[in-house]
Write a structure and sequence with these properties.
Alpha-Beta Plaits, alpha+beta, globular
Length: 207
Amino acid sequence: MLDMMRRSSVLADVVVLQHSVLNSAEKKKLFISPIMNVEDARCWYAVYVRSRFEKKVHQFLQEKGITSYLPLIETWRQWSDRKKKVSIPLFKGYVFVRIVFKSDHYKVLGTDGVVKFVGIRNVPSVILDRDIEWIKIIAGEPDALKDILPEMPSGQRVKVISGPFRGLEGVVQKEGRGAKLLVYFDSIMQGIEVLINPEYLQPIKGV
């Protein structure tokens, strides 16, 4: 499926923050006042949903007036009698919501198809606004995607120094004359692998 989508590009390294570890600088990025609790701020979260229920959950959440985002990519599906372009979730089983956790999380959990919030040790992970924007860019570049990774890859950590995604970071591995940039999304414990021109990459020292 995704292995048919191969072109040079690069992805964002999504930084995920838990409620308990947000510092003042990170709160500023989230537009949170120093006296405001994270649970009182409107932030992005990921929710795990029932299999093949991503689009329905996205619709149900929107009908409730909840800001919901479902990253979709287009790919070709082959049936015995026809071939058709379809939209599929970038991350199977996940939908993103922007809510005030304290007041809205019950409405999200009460939505048909929603299983739970994604986080660590039962603490929902907060996702920065800028990282959601990068995911939107990624979803708009389906031909760059190569594979989905179930765990954090090992390798040389690098930074992109040229092109539209300049400043992003990931792990690089060589593949023939090119290179693969491996990016892991801690918030949903999933990663993505893409092909990239190695000339666009610079090793990060001390990592």
